[in-house]
Design brief:
The protein is an alpha/beta fold. The chain has three domains: 62 residues, no CATH class; 255 residues, 3-Layer(aba) Sandwich (Aspartate Aminotransferase, domain 2); 129 residues, Aspartate Aminotransferase, domain 1, CATH 3.90.1150. Helices cover 38% and strands 10% of the residues. Helix 5 runs antiparallel to helix 13 and helix 7 packs parallel to helix 13. The longest helix has 37 residues. The chain is globular. The protein starts with a helix and ends in a 12-residue tail after the last helix.
Length: 486
């Protein structure tokens, strides 16, 4: 009964005459309504809404919720997404009346508490990045990339320099070239070198006076720290170009090393990744950027400034303008702020160290069944390959990912980055226990011994097993149609 209540629509559960609440007959005559609304605007009959009892409605949604996976109920080893546990303390603090009830149009003089918090967050993010100027404006990491690239474009334009191209490694996040293209740059992808790191010689061959920015994630998407990052940064700076650090993997760096110290000129944070803001189904997110002092005047407006008597919203002198409404996705920014205040500097370093420890522990537990082609050691994540088990037993990375759902685990990222065949990108995060990691490793080790034909049709415990994802993406159906009308 539970699965039926969860998987049927409320229309299918409807029965004529059932009610959750019965209201008294309206004592308002029809006359006034006719006067307010023209007859042609009135429906001929009430909408065909489902008729349901209260228990049916409650059970439907509660049972529906049990079919979902979440960080509160399952282990999420999503590589490069960092679905870490969101402390409930921070959820509660972010809903305090003076915070959650503040109107977005309230005047700055009536929002001093909020502005003080946001100013402190700017300062903390600047210190963690090693870059002095911060904008909280961007609504997500990808918009943070775009914002920083627009800042760079404006800076070069004011200098009278025609910089037309942006470089990035083959293992870069897909948003990097997309953001560069949106900002008006040509994109140039470098090839993957042996060991998964940037090929310095190829980079030398690509950098010239038309290069505006080199976008690099460090640690990179393979979970490996770019050991030549200072040399790489110096090369770009020698050609008058800027270095952009994609901050998606900052949870491996926080408290240990800073992008500004190893040559980065700009970066974004994924607050929902590094600082536990809840994130799923495409939002919400926040992608603050940090930049060097010479780029500060180009940041989007507004930024929070401290005055002698309090705080104010200011527009930098050469601002690129607004990237979104108001001054950032405050709900997520606040959760990041409370996370930082909870941990402090020493706690933040512990986060990075535990994330690296968990990833290397899980990597070692799986090394003989899912080898990692690049890197003897990893940082916060690693990219294993199911190519050998595919060649030997016909079991693909997708088979393993789908079967993990039957074992109560969310699947890791699969088939990304493209530079690893049958890629399985696994990130345990610092919030998971050894017992959880052991159970996950045991599940994978069991799966690769199971009947391949059985795995090809996994998962077997979910309402839907293997939907045609390509067809769904190209021909989405957003409207439910009763079976009798189909």
């Amino acid at each position: 009964m539970r699965n039926k209540l969860a998987t049927q629509s409320l229309f299918e559960l409807s029965a004529a005459g059932r009610r959750a609440t019965t209201f008294p007959e309206s004592d308002v005559g029809a006359g006034p309504l006719d006067e307010l609304l023209p007859a042609e605007q009135l429906a001929e009959s009430p909408p065909p809404l489902p008729e349901l009892s209260e228990p049916t409605v409650v059970r439907h949604f509660v049972n529906l919720s049990t079919l979902n996976m979440s960080v509160d109920t399952h282990f999420y080893p999503l590589g490069s997404c960092t679905m870490k546990y969101n402390p409930k303390r921070h959820e509660r603090l972010a809903r305090f009346g003076g915070i959650g009830d503040l109107h977005p149009y309230a005047h700055p003089e009536d929002s001093q508490g909020m502005l003080a918090v946001l100013y402190d967050l700017q300062e903390m993010l600047a210190e963690i990045a090693g870059l002095p100027a911060v904008s909280l404006h961007p609504a997500a990491g990808a918009q943070g990339e775009l914002t920083a690239l627009l800042v760079a474009a404006a800076w070069f334009r004011d200098r009278g320099e025609e910089r037309t191209k942006v470089l990035f490694p083959s293992s870069a996040h897909g948003t990097n070239p997309a953001s560069a293209a949106l900002a008006g740059f040509k994109t140039v992808q470098l090839n993957k070198s042996a060991g998964g790191l940037v090929d310095f010689d190829e980079l030398v061959s690509q950098v010239d006076d038309s290069t505006a920015v080199f976008m690099i994630t460090n640690p990179n998407t393979l979970g490996i720290f770019e050991k030549e990052i200072v040399r790489i940064s110096q090369l770009l700076h020698d050609h008058g170009a800027l270095v952009y650090i994609d901050g998606a993997n900052m949870n491996a760096n926080v408290g240990i090393t800073r992008p500004g110290d190893f040559g980065g000129d700009m970066m974004h944070y994924n607050v929902h990744k590094t600082f536990t803001g809840p994130h799923g189904a495409g939002g919400p997110g926040a992608g603050p950027i940090a930049v060097r002092d010479f780029l500060a005047d180009y940041l989007p407006a507004p930024v929070v400034q401290k005055t002698g008597e309090g705080y104010e919203l200011a527009t930098p002198s050469r601002s690129i303008g607004r990237m979104r409404s108001f001054f950032g996705n405050v709900g997520i920014l606040l959760r990041g702020y409370f996370y930082l205040r909870t941990l402090g500097a020493s706690g933040l370093k512990d986060v990075a160290e535990q994330a690296v420890l968990n990833a290397n522990y899980l990597k070692a537990k799986l090394a003989d069944v899912l080898p990692v082609p690049d890197g003897e050691w990893c940082l916060h994540e690693f990219v294993a390959s199911a190519k050998r088990v595919k060649d030997e037993r016909g079991i693909t990375a997708m088979d393993i990912a789908k079967r993990l759902l039957d074992y109560g685990f969310h699947a890791p990222t699969v088939y990304f980055p493209l530079v690893v065949p049958e890629a399985m990108m696994i990130e345990p995060t610092e919030t998971e226990s050894m017992e959880t990691l052991d159970c996950f490793a045991k599940a994978i080790r069991t799966i690769v011994t199971e009947d391949p034909e059985f795995l090809h049709s996994a998962p077997h415990t979910t309402p839907i097993s293997r939907p045609d994802e390509v067809a769904a993406g190209r021909n989405p159906v957003f409207r439910w149609t009763p079976a009798c009308d189909s």
